[in-house]
Amino acid sequence: MFAVAELPAGGGPEITLAFAFPVDERASAKSLTLDNLGNVFVLFISPPDFTWQVYEVPARGGGQVVLPPTFSSDGGYMAADAADDLFVGNAPQIEEIPAGASSAVTISAFPTPKHSYAPNVAVNPAGDVFSVLPSGDLVKLHRSQPPQLSFPETAVGTTIPLSISIQNTGNASLSLSSITTSGPFATMWSTSSDCTNGSSLPPGRDATSASPSSRNRKP
């Protein structure tokens, strides 16, 4: 039988949390992590299909919650960022379960390994994600730094739009006080975008994609 116990920081006897894991003897718990709110997450593999499932015990109390996404590859470790988004190593990719979401999003895919492995996952306070590949290489996903836009060759007098989005990976509302552009091309922002000056993003939320357009002009 599986159980998760809490050792109080102030001392005293351990507290067994109210987890109700599958009772099949072939099932096993593979990873455990906590978010900033104190919610506990356990990555579990269960027969008969041996799929990977994440169980959550809310810090506010009550019974466990089985998160909707299931993983059929080699599940590994988990980590949570400041916005309580959960990251799961699901070889050969890393999956993100945004806080309050009912599905997982693949944030990075690596070359498929020759042998099974459980990918490590770690997140720093800025929201950057780290993992170790089977080759031993440490990779870093720069989620705290904006990606570069690379516009294709553009004919004179035409525009090429590129879609971008903004996600708040912190634990407080993000205010977009100023959006500016630079570079050799004139850039225009879509009027339908909510990525505008003065808009605000709650923790863990995404802004609707903006569409800057590069206009090629004659020298």
Automatic annotation (TrEMBL):
It comes from the Bacteria. Residues 192-219 are annotated as: Disordered. Residues 208-219 have a biased composition (Polar residues). This is Uncharacterized protein. It comes from Acidisarcina polymorpha.
